[in-house]
Amino acid sequence: MRGFGELEAAVMRQLWAADGPVTVRHVHSALSDERELAYTTVLTVMDKLHRKGWLRRQPHGRAHLYQPVATREQHGAGLMREALTDSGDRERTLLHFVGQMTLDEAAALRAALNTYERKIADG
């Protein structure tokens, strides 16, 4: 699981912000507010994301409806898991990571760990 390229990330942000499945035209229209892109470019990127397993699609008339397979948070967690796995020394990596956190981020991490520990204990 690697990060997305710039255009892939822009497409994924649009899909994560959507209330449900959307068409290429919808994403193209939203992205065109930010930059000039050909419809076929967006179509190609979304097709590649589908083939890579990041998007699911379903036929919708002559088009397709696309939606992410994972939430933005699940994707971020996967990236963090991969970085931790690839780091070599997990404890030192975690110490460096925590050392870069704001107080609010540290509090959020502490709350997440407490929730996880309660879940394990109740499990």
From TrEMBL:
Entry annotated with the keyword Transcription regulation:
yes
Q: Which UniProt keywords apply?
A: DNA-binding, Transcription, Transcription regulation
Alphabetical list of SUPFAM superfamilies matching this protein: Winged helix' DNA-binding domain (SSF46785)
Which Pfam family, giving just one, matches this sequence?
A: Penicillinase_R
Q: Which family does it belong to?
A: Belongs to the BlaI transcriptional regulatory family.
Name the chain's protein: BlaI/MecI/CopY family transcriptional regulator
